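Exercise: predict the fold of this chain.
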Amino acid sequence: MEKFIVDEDLQVILQNEEDGTSTPIKGGITAQDFEVISTYPKGWLTFAYLRDRQGIWWFNARKNKASLFSRDTEAFRVIDEDYCCDSRYVYLEDQVVPDSDPPSFRLLPDTPYFAQDQRYLYVKSSTHFHLFEDIDTNAVIAHHDYCTDKDHLFHLSSSLRYANGDKDEVRAWLREHHPDVPGWWQPDYAHSADGATQITGNWVETASSIFYKTEWGGTAHREAKEVYNLVRDVHRSTFEPLDEQFARDRERVYFQWRTLKGADPDTFKPLGGPFGYDDNHVYYNGYRVDGADVRQFEVFAGTEHLGLSKDLQHVYRAEVARTSQPFGHPDDVLQMIKGADASTFELITPSGSWAVDADHVYLWGKPNKHIDRATFTHLFDAYPQSWAMDQKGLYNANGNLRA
């Protein structure tokens, strides 16, 4: 058992009550008005919120260090072992959540994973934390690792994802526990897809709504089922599909059923696959590609799923990463390939299995440090294999085998 005390030298220390050893707390916390607000044992370590005359501190037991993160001692309150707030912000431990709203923040019932305020859904598992904005925070209901609003269902695994194909998993629970809340689980739901007809491709419609149709759960032994994902807030009379994945109306651009934030519907054009652009920005998978030069941007056709593309300064590929910093939810976003030379980058195979620039060999868009660029030679493709060699050996792109 450990406890925080002020010793005779007026230092804040952490004392082990079993063996009497003590450790000074790093970071600058003082004995003036020192107080322990709350402690949280995690394994054999003790984490804590502390206070002194300067303000509120978070003690990180792994570093044996306290960090000052709020001077608002009057309004500060601990919510649980992960969250706290003052009059301005919600915090994850000592990290401020930008644009958070403390008055509306609450932990959601029936789940250990979700909380919300008027802007964000807060998603916290044992190993990951992120914020999610693509949900109606005025209508959030959580149930274990599922979360829903009135139109869409989401599921938490490694990150929060749309899970409209799983609606049958929680429909009965929602009807039993939220019988008076309007939503997709109710028989009189305003945006039922019953009777939907095709506009073109995967875009379908009813008299009241637009949907993007996907397939869910198909296996070698089970046929996939059709899922109708509502496109929210569509202006029906001006809605038009642009291609298989993009559409627009007079106010918004849509990637499948999601809105492209900030995209200009008057100038937006698809580029193939999940790529698109307007006069100011490039977009991939529904997310803006910051830093990309829209006037010089080009996509390597046939590799859209890999995101291989470039402008005059950078080469890009798709990676699972945060959609914004510091706490955006993870998804497939376009990232610069560090060290890639845009002026000499070229595909060796149409599939994108092999590519090169002046100094590097790329395997499915990732630089491979083990292959010698000077002696690299692509041999042949025999689907699904793609073979190459250098002075050190033989390589297969589908497994990176070397002999």
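Check your answer against the key: The helical segments are 167-177.
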